[in-house]
Write a sequence for this structure.
């Protein structure tokens, strides 16, 4: 087991009206090693919020998050950043590559906190390998502005993998891509899941992508309703 | 990938944004550094001026109203192995008669060859009637080398002009001089012993020649001393040497053996032996005879009268020891003349001479105790003092006594007495009675005698000098160089002054930096979110951001400090030219200290870094998820809380301002400007909050009606309340500050005739270089006025003021002064008129009759004094209640307690004391040099002409009192002009900030505008939409500031003296509006130029 959510509730306060809106309602979920999982649901159902909580980008109003047996609620911001950096990989709907950095530099951003020179060198080699793996070996020194959205999103996936995380969290990773690029990225995620034994959690509207995952959850009105298992 | 690489890449990629932050930091640092450098520059210039003024002079010996032997300088020079120079320092009036140009106050310096050693330059020796003049004299009189001019030199005399029986003499001696050379600053062109940056008009002439012309041969009234090359001479060492070399002649004493007598007689060249001198003489432990001989107008008995006779008051053996206070001994001649015998009662009529030769007729009755022979023993002609114009007169009709002599009263027998016995006293009284009747501030004795058998003349001289403290008779040594440096070092702090003057521009630049950085951080919040999402801690992201901006700020600070030098050059140029009213000089030089540059750069960098750190931290406070989404977690919640607070602030601000104004109006307390200023400030805060409320309400009011373009525009203004508030506040505070500053310009137009105003209601202020020694309000005094039509002098009143020279403590002098000029004013006249008003009075002062306090004595040698409040605070750096120490003419320390501060008056720079105290403590000051003239405004021209013509030879400068006040005000007003100019620049910088905000807003909203076009809006409508929104914010800011400022300056507006430079203000406000408007127009136009729909296509 990598992450376990226990009775997660998340609510937001409405400033103008002064009332509170509950986005996640008593969610419990376990993600195991090597598992691939999709979370689907209508807009505003709390998918991204759930993913953010899984990735420690956001904190729940109540409930526990257990990461490899450690309770994350009790951790400070710095420790959480360390967990994100070393154990979790993120892929956003938009690639969010920094426009000022070229591809290889973007991919290596998560290595910035690393102080060990040997590990930094190893990361560089790994980045080159991964980029080759996703077909971007010849574009390592290009700025994001010069690449297609699909290429950038692939680079963003490589960035998520660079520190060899146990889990990748992807928020609508194909949302900004055309059909072909989306299919390619979906295949890539499955490939990564299998090749690197990395757990993957994808929040998506795309049933096509969802169906490529081991498990599919539906989130409706803040509740995790059904679980479908794909073989 | 390293942090360093991320930072350098980001620096380059976001260079445009960083450049803006760089410029903001550069401006704030440049202004800050420039202000600090100007402090150094002014300080340096003043210190340098000390060298220019004094050359190698380290000490100066001044002699007050006395003169010492010129040879004393050489004696001290040899003894101490230092350079010295004897000077005759006088005042004069220089006239180029060819073109009728004149300088009314010149410093005439009688020199010899030793003087130029002090300047380090050798100049030609001066013959008689040759002069070397400073450049400003040559320029003002339009003279060149070889040309001649007329110099009226103050007729300096050994005997004080106010002393009894001193004949009236011409105030000046006119001599024609030919210019031998014109000297610049490096050759003592600015030679002056006073700490003042204004250049004196110097005329150097031969000391021997000028002394001879004034009957002061071989005398000097000032000696300069240098330091020794190998050793620093201390003041006490030099004072010691002076005491050792001083002779009785330097003290003005004459010691001689009386003919046919066994007595040494000590007399003073000043006729009366002043108190410290007689104290020193009488401290000799030997029997002495004290003499006071006085001229009485008449001795009367039984209807008979003997005119103009000398009476001697003396001790034994001249007068018997047992003589009673009301007894008199008469000589044969008088006894026969009046037919009196022992036991008869006679009356003595005499004058007591007051200030400005005011004569009081007094009389005293005595009983004749004895009749003695006309010339017998010690009772002889030697008892008559050496009155000039009297003792040397051939006959009684030739007497020139300084008092009116009725020649008709002089009989033949009186002439015969004069021929036979000269001034042999006709009667004798006890010394005590004589002192009571005729003792005066110049001394109570006319001679002291010692028996020749008791002491030799040499021992007598030595004993007197041994007992004499030079300072007691006004011979003082001053460490003039050290004092000058001290005055320069403690001068007006221009660094501090310009920091405050530049406050708005610095604040605007910092605000701009913060704003730009905040916008940059906003734009890159997503990046921060991504970095956080990828596992970089907030602290690390903060470090990255801070380091990135820090680099920019570091360079901005370094370049800013360097630009500060140019900014400082600009300010110095301004102060030496258009703003010279503030400094009264054109000698300011730029002085750049590395330490100042460093401090400026560090301060600029620190402030910018602090702002950036704060903004970055604040921006990074949001959760990672919200950063990625580009929204604040609980923005709406904060907005709601802010709304409630905003509403409260708006109500409290506006209602509070109205209450304050209403109360002040009801209780007619318009004098309390602070209340109105606070009301203005409250209104500014309240109205800004109100506008924000208004905008927010528009935002919340969505969907309730069909919106117009204007409606939508105002709703749009509420999209980012923070930015809108920034725009409104920057413009409002800027406008408010500038109008407030402008209206606080000191003016008095319309109030100058009011007694309570700074002019005291007097029409003219006149100042003469040479003293006027007669009372102009008397018939006798008016005879000195030259006029054709007596009607012109109707209702004209003169208030003559005696003065004791001192440093100018007004705002016209940048140096700190210790002892300002003292003016002895007529307290009764000021009280009668209720003249002038006070900013502060001690509790002991009667507020209804404040001037009368000056006549009081607060203790032994402690007197109350007034000065302008600004002089007390800035010139003297003191407070009401503090004390100023002076030495009076007899060397006693007198203390003047500042019991009140005058409200901005024509007396700026002076210390005001009672004329009675003045006359008592400084009797030798001699005549008045200042006149306040009350005259009908309609006769202004005629009166000025009469005064000008009557006192042309006195070097009169007559100005309207209002003009004099305006001159003082011009200093402060110039500072305000500088503030307004720099403040205006600050607002313009503020509009740049507004432009940048607008630019960002437009960038962020281009897609939204594209949508509107897609929905069918025309370009012109979209243009209107954006223009209305931004013009609304621009106008709101300016109007808020304007109305708040009007509330703040209500007392000034109501005052008749209100004279704000409306055109300047209007131009400034219009300029701000126009520049802001142009920004809006330019940015909106360029944004709309792009096909907005294409942006949607890109989407």
């Amino acid at each position: 087991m990598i992450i376990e959510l226990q009775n997660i509730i998340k609510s937001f306060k409405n400033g103008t009206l002064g009332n509170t809106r509950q986005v996640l309602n008593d969610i419990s979920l376990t993600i195991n090693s090597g598992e691939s999982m999709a979370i689907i649901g209508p807009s505003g159902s709390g998918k991204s919020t759930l993913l953010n909580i899984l990735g420690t980008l956001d904190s729940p109003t109540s409930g526990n998050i257990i990461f490899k047996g450690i309770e994350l609620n009790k951790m400070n911001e710095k420790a959480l950043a360390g967990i994100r950096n070393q154990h979790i990989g993120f892929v956003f709907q938009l690639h969010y590559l920094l426009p000022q950095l070229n591809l290889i530099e973007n991919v290596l951003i998560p290595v910035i906190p690393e102080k060990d020179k040997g590990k930094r060198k190893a990361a560089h080699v790994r980045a080159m390998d991964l980029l080759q793996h996703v077909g971007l070996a010849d574009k390592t020194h290009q700025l994001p502005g010069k690449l297609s959205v699909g290429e950038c999103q692939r680079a963003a996936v490589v960035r998520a993998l660079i520190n060899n995380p146990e889990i990748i969290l992807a928020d609508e990773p194909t949302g900004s891509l055309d059909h072909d690029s989306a299919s390619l990225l979906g295949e890539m995620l499955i490939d990564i899941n299998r090749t690197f034994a990395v757990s993957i959690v994808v929040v998506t509207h795309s049933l096509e992508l969802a169906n490529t995952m081991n498990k599919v959850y539906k989130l409706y009105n803040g509740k995790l309703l059904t679980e479908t298992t794909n073989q | 990938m390293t942090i360093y690489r991320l930072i350098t890449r980001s620096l380059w990629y976001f260079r445009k944004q960083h450049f803006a932050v760089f410029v903001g930091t550069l401006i704030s640092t440049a202004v800050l550094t420039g202000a600090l450098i100007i402090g150094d520059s002014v300080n340096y210039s003043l210190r340098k001026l000390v060298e220019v003024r004094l050359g190698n002079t380290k000490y100066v010996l001044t002699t007050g109203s006395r003169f010492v032997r010129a040879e004393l300088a050489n004696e001290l020079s040899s003894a101490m192995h230092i350079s010295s120079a004897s000077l005759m320092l006088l005042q004069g009036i220089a006239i180029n008669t060819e073109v009728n140009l004149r300088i009314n106050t010149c410093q005439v310096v009688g020199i010899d060859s030793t003087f130029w050693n002090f300047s380090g330059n050798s100049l030609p020796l001066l013959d008689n009637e040759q002069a070397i003049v400073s450049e400003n004299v040559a320029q003002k009189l339009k003279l060149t080398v070889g040309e001649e001019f007329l110099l009226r030199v103050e007729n300096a005399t050994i005997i004080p002009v106010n002393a009894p029986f001193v004949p009236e003499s011409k105030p000046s001696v006119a001599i024609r001089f030919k210019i031998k050379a014109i000297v610049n600053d490096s050759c003592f062109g600015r030679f002056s012993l006073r700490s003042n940056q204004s250049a004196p008009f110097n005329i150097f002439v031969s000391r021997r020649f000028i002394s001879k012309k004034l009957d002061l041969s071989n005398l000097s009234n000032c000696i300069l001393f240098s330091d020794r090359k190998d050793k620093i001479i201390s003041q006490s060492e030099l004072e010691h040497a002076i005491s050792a070399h001083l002779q009785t002649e330097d003290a003005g004493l004459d010691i001689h053996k009386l003919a046919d007598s066994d007595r040494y007689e000590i007399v003073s060249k000043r006729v009366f032996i002043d108190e410290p001198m007689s104290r020193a003489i009488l401290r000799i432990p030997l029997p002495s005879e004290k003499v006071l001989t006085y001229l009485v107008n008449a001795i009367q008995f039984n209807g008979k009268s003997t005119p103009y006779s000398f009476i001697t008051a003396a001790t034994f053996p001249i007068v018997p020891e047992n003589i009673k206070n009301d007894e008199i001994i008469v000589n044969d001649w008088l006894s026969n003349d009046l037919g009196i015998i022992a036991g008869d009662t006679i009356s003595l009529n005499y004058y007591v001479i007051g200030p400005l030769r005011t004569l009081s007729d007094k009389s005293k009755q005595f009983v004749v105790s004895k009749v003695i022979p006309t010339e017998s023993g010690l009772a002889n002609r030697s008892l008559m003092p050496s009155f000039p114009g009297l003792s040397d007169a051939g006959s009684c009709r030739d007497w020139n006594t300084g008092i009116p002599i009725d020649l008709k009263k002089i009989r033949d027998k009186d002439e015969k007495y004069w021929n036979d016995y000269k001034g042999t006293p006709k009667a004798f009284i006890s010394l005590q009675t004589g002192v009571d009747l005729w003792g005066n501030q110049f001394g109570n004795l006319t001679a002291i005698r010692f028996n020749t058998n008791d002491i030799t003349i040499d021992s007598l001289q030595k004993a007197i000098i041994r007992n004499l403290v030079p300072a007691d008779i006004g011979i003082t040594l001053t460490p003039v160089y050290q004092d000058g440096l001290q005055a320069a070092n403690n001068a007006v702090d221009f660094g501090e002054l310009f920091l405050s003057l530049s406050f708005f521009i610095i604040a605007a630049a910092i605000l701009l930096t913060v704003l730009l950085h905040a916008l940059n951080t906003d734009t890159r919040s997503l990046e921060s979110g991504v970095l956080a999402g990828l596992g970089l801690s907030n602290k690390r992201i903060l470090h990255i951001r801070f380091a990135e901006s820090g680099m920019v700020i570091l360079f901005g600070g370094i370049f800013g400090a360097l630009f500060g030098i140019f900014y400082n050059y600009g300010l110095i140029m301004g102060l030496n030219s258009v703003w010279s009213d503030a400094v009264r000089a054109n000698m300011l030089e730029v002085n750049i200290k590395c330490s100042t540059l460093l401090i400026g750069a560090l301060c600029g960098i620190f402030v910018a870094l602090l702002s950036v750190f704060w903004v970055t931290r604040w921006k990074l406070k949001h959760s990672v998820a919200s950063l990625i989404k580009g929204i604040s977690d609980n923005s709406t919640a904060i907005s709601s809380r802010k709304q409630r607070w905003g509403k409260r602030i708006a109500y409290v601000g506006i209602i509070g301002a109205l209450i304050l104004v209403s109360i002040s109006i009801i209780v007619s307390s318009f004098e309390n400007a602070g209340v109105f200023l606070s009301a203005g400030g409250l209104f500014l805060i309240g109205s800004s909050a109100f506008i924000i409320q208004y905008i927010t309400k528009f935002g919340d009011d969505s969907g309730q009606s069909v919106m117009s373009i204007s409606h939508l525009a105002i709703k749009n203004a509420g999209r980012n309340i923070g930015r809108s508030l920034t725009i409104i506040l920057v413009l409002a505070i800027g406008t408010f500050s500038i109008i407030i500053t402008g209206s606080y310009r000191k003016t008095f137009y319309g109030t100058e005739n009011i007694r309570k105003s700074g002019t005291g209601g007097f029409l003219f202020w006149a100042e003469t270089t040479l003293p006027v020694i007669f009372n102009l309000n008397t018939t006798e005094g008016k005879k000195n006025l030259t006029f054709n039509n007596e009607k012109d002098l109707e209702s004209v009143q003169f208030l003559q003021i005696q003065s004791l020279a001192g440093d100018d403590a007004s705002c016209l002098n940048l140096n700190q002064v210790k002892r300002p000029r003292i003016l002895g004013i007529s307290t009764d006249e000021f009280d009668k008129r209720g003249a002038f008003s006070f900013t502060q009075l001690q509790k002991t002062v009667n507020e209804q009759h404040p001037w009368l306090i000056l006549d009081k004595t607060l203790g032994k040698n402690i007197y109350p004094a007034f000065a302008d409040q600004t002089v007390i605070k800035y010139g003297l750096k003191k407070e009401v209640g503090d004390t100023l120490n002076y030495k009076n003419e007899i060397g006693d320390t007198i203390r003047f307690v500042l019991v009140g501060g005058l409200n901005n008056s024509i007396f700026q720079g002076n210390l005001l004391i009672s004329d009675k105290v003045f006359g008592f403590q400084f009797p030798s000051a001699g005549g008045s040099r200042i006149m306040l003239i009350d005259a009908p405004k309609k006769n202004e021209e005629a009166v000025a002409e009469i005064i000008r013509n009557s006192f042309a030879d006195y070097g009169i400068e007559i100005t309207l009192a209002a003009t004099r006040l305006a001159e003082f005000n011009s200093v402060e007003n110039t500072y305000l002009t500088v503030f307004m100019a720099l403040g205006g620049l600050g607002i313009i910088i503020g509009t740049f900030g507004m432009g940048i905000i607008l630019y960002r807003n437009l960038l962020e909203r281009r897609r939204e505008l594209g949508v509107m076009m897609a929905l069918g809006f025309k370009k012109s409508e979209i243009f209107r939409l954006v223009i209305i929104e931004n013009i609304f914010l621009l106008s709101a800011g300016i109007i808020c500031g304007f109305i708040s400022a009007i509330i703040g300056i209500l007392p000034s507006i109501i005052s008749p003296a209100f004279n704000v430079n409306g055109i300047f203000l209007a131009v400034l406000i219009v300029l701000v509006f126009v520049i802001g408007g142009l920004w809006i127009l330019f940015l909106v136009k360029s944004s709309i130029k792009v096909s907005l729909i294409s942006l949607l296509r890109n989407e």
